[in-house]
Write a structure and sequence with these properties.
mainly alpha, about 5% strand, globular
């Protein structure tokens, strides 16, 4: 009697769960910090948002496809996968992968909702419409992209493949929302998240990379990968959906890696200007809690900088 192929993913998941939740001292403080931070992200907007929460929240935004895979995993083992005499079979095949599975896009939209709620909480604490409400608009644009992506997928299954594009208004709305979202997020990446103002002649203090070319390359990379979704249009019908999604997921991982480097650098620059320790490391938890008594300081600083442009 062989082992069912459906058992292997459960074993791998169990190994990761055992590592993260076990009480051994190995990386215990780090694992607790991650759990607490994610807990504050998930409970937005009921907690005060700091750099750690916004940073982790942005990581979750890039994991939208991964969260959909988690939803499929739960759905598959709940509704489809069954075992009998050591063999696996499915009782309701295709249910979890159907385009009518509304839970999948809802799960993918959760990270954007978390960040949207965090922005609203920041506005509530600081009363600064810029940047917080404008940033909230960015994440609401991402949610609209997910909505029209889902509607477009459903519509494609209901109309003939050879129909003209103009006969698919949802498809055009999806492209429009995706273009607006990409331009929106690209601008925010460069000018707000990275704090880059390379048009100025003076070099900002605190930048870690001495060659300014690196920043220009990062800007070009971010622009290209923000529009990586257009690959789905170029290769429509040429590649399997799973291959296209894998390419886009890998591109987003690389883009987020580069984004992380310059986002942390910008936080370092802000900390340098205010002469305060960065509140994103576990060992600075006490300083982080103290900094929450002045939640609008950094936001006001950025607001003043960009109002002078």
């Amino acid at each position: 009697m062989g082992v069912s192929e459906n058992v292997i993913p459960l074993v791998v998941l169990g190994m990761f769960a055992a590592f993260f939740f076990n009480p051994s001292p190995f990386l215990l403080s780090a694992r607790r910090w991650v759990a607490r931070t994610i807990g504050r992200v998930v409970t937005s907007p009921f907690g005060v948002e700091g750099f750690a929460e916004s940073f982790i929240g942005d990581q979750l935004v890039s994991l939208g496809q991964g969260l959909q895979d988690v939803e499929y995993f739960v759905c598959f083992y709940t509704l489809e996968a069954q075992w009998k005499m050591g063999n696996s079979y499915t009782t309701q095949p295709g249910v979890c992968s159907s385009s009518h599975n509304t839970l999948s896009p809802l799960v993918a939209a959760l990270p954007s909702w978390f960040r949207f709620a965090q922005c609203l909480r920041c506005y509530y604490d600081t009363k600064l419409a810029f940047p917080h409400l404008v940033n909230a608009g960015k994440y609401s644009a991402s949610i609209f992209v997910l909505i029209f992506t889902t509607l477009n997928t459903i519509q494609r299954e209901q109309i003939p493949v050879n129909d003209q594009v103009l006969d698919r208004p949802v498809y055009l709305l999806w492209i429009l929302c995706a273009v607006i979202n990409s331009c929106y997020t690209f601008y925010w990446d460069v000018y707000m998240d990275w704090g880059l103002e390379l048009h100025k002649k003076t070099r900002p203090k605190g930048l870690k990379f001495h060659h300014i070319t690196i920043y220009y390359l990062a800007i070009v990379e971010d622009l290209l990968l923000r529009f990586a979704w257009s690959i789905t249009i170029a290769v429509d019908g040429l590649l399997e959906k799973e291959i296209t999604l894998s390419i886009l997921a890998a591109a987003e991982i690389f883009r987020r890696f580069v984004w992380n480097v310059f986002r942390v650098e910008d936080e370092h620059v802000i900390s340098y200007k205010f002469r305060t320790p960065s509140p994103w490391l576990p060992k600075h938890e006490a300083d982080f809690e103290a900094s929450r008594h002045q939640p609008g300081a950094i936001a006001q600083h950025k607001n003043n900088d960009h109002s002078q442009k």
